[in-house]
Amino acid sequence: MAVHPLRLSRFNVTSLVLGLAFLYLPIVILVIYSFNASRLVTVWGGWSTRWYTEFFNDRAMLDAAWMSLRVGVVSATLATLLGTLAAIALTRGTGFRGRMLMSGMLYAPLVMPEVITGLSLLLLFVALDAGRGFVTVTIAHTTLTMCFVAVVVQSRLAGIDRSLEEAAMDLGRDPLRAFIAVTLPLIWPAIAAGWMLAFTLSLDDLVIASFTTGPGSATLPIRIYSEVRLGVKPEINAICTLIVGFIAVVIVLASLVSKLSSARGESAAPL
Length: 271
Hints:
Blueprint: H1 10-33, H2 50-57, H3 59-92, H4 99-111, H5 114-127, H6 134-158, H7 162-170, H8 175-204, H9 207-212, H10 220-228, H11 234-263
Helix pairs in contact: 1-11, 2-11, 3-6, 3-8, 3-10, 4-6, 6-8, 7-8
């Protein structure tokens, strides 16, 4: 039987175009106006890169960006480590008591409003008399993103045949070395995807960081929000354009790595 190619109707094409425009047109406008020479964001004054220069000369904004990068890298790494261990425990430890309770507590931040999470962490840090800063924000972001990593890794572990690891143990490997030699390479793409998701969520967070940050440790979203309340400056458009460009480069590199891994016959998680 002949297979007819899928034909897009005019309605489908229109819906697709409107949907893409709704998603990406504001970003395109933001990128264009980041090169606006005028100080007024609603008035076009010609092409210029002066606002990028202003950003790299703004010490407070650079410190906030560096703070966000440090918090993102550290919290994403900790969340990946803890989330992977939690996913292994939930997938392999089907017999221990309290598994359902642990699973519910682990996945609670997925459905809990960020305001409640941020307020509860703030009360915890106040009760412990902990000075709010880099450490408290990192702990808060690790708590927030660990559950996302656990979901990604657990879904990958559920699709792996346990007999492969058992065969390695039959050949003389102990359980730890069998896991490292067989299972870890199979779930590595999922771990990398979980790290990227955790890092992105950390960079994007505003609510929880506003509860757990302190003087001199403001992240970039908090700094941008404080600036926007006084009026949108073209410098903020330049900052957002740099972030969009950075994320686009990371996505392209991740997609290339995923395709190269698939071409070599490795089990890669789609990104």
